[in-house]
Design a protein that fits this description.
With 133 residues, the chain is mainly α. The chain has one domain. Helix content is 74%, strand content 0%. It contains six helices and no strands.
């Protein structure tokens, strides 16, 4: 874990850093299955690009989080990004549900974790804000 991140103020309810790797590893299995099956549906013309678009955007925003948080060391950009991850996740669940409800359902753990991560990131951003006088 990045030394800079370890020194940030975090809420008391923040999980230990060692939890994040295993949780994301499990969640990525569902993400891969839902993305892969949706891509398959797109290739077979069972869904349109507009239904598949939130899957692509979600992956892009998900990938961007780590560089924004740990390379740029920007809590604000990381917060904006995780809000986009959450928004595109809700969008993809709503758009795919009429076609394949099970894809929306397997993303529920991802939704719960990203909701928690969004609240955590907002808290970290707030606790580490710089107050100008």
């Amino acid at each position: 874990m990045n030394q800079w991140y370890m020194q940030l103020k975090k809420p008391l309810w923040s999980p230990p850093s060692k939890i994040f790797g295993p949780v994301w590893s499990i969640l990525y299995l569902g993400i891969i299955v839902s993305f892969g099956y949706s891509a398959y549906m797109l290739m077979r013309s069972q869904i349109s690009w507009i239904v598949f678009l939130p899957f692509i955007l979600n992956i892009v925003f998900n990938i961007l989080f780590t560089p924004l948080q740990f390379r740029l060391r920007s809590n604000i950009l990381a917060l904006l990004d995780i809000l986009l991850v959450l928004s595109t996740l809700i969008w993809l669940m709503l758009t795919i549900f009429p076609y394949k409800p099970w894809i929306a359902y397997i993303n529920i753990p991802y939704l719960l974790w990203v909701s928690f991560a969004t609240i955590l990131q907002a808290s970290i951003t707030w606790l580490n804000r710089k107050i100008k006088r």
